[in-house]
């Protein structure tokens, strides 16, 4: 069973992502976080297999959270999900260890991106296609 941590300050988005992800065989949202600080704490405690991380959260942004997680758990894949995606944000995400980015509104790409990251690849479709 793949254990997924969903970190987003919006409870509606967390519920939406949980429903979407748990439709996949063998995937389970094992934990949720409302803030960046909570996400860091949850990673320490529950050791998920993958993290879906919002960019905009009240205390720390997704880039700051990802940087800290990547420093401590370099093999833990992180997918950033965001409302607004730019090439600049995707480039910054890569620099801090995020392995994929996609829009919250693109349901199909979220599932595809999680699957891609679980297969130890990256997912940056809008910047340079999926790569190894």
List keywords for this structure.
6 helices; 132 residues; Rossmann fold; alpha/beta; single chain; 5-stranded parallel β-sheet; globular
Explain what the structure shows.
- By secondary structure, the protein is an alpha/beta fold.
- It has a single domain, classed as Rossmann fold (3-Layer(aba) Sandwich), CATH 3.40.50.
- The chain has helices at 11-21, 36-46, 62-72, 87-95, 107-118, 125-128; strands spanning 2-7, 27-33, 50-54, 78-82, 100-103.
- A 5-stranded parallel sheet has the order 2-1-3-4-5, sandwiched between helices.
- Helix 2 (36-46) packs parallel to helix 3 (62-72).
- The two termini are 24 Å apart.
CATH C-level name: Alpha Beta
For the record, what is the CATH homologous superfamily label?
Response regulator
Strand order of the largest sheet: 2-1-3-4-5
Largest sheet: 5 strands, parallel
- Helix content, binned percent: 40-55%
Strand content: 15-25%
CATH topology, by name, is Rossmann fold
Count of the separate structural domains = 1
Number of helices: 6
Give the ordered list of helices and strands.
EHEHEHEHEHH
Based on CA atoms alone, the radius of gyration comes out at 13 Å
Q: Provide the low-confidence segments as ranges.
A: 127-132
Outline, from the CA principal axes? globular
Tell me which CATH architecture applies here: 3-Layer(aba) Sandwich
- The residue-averaged pLDDT reads 92
- Please provide the count of β strands: 5
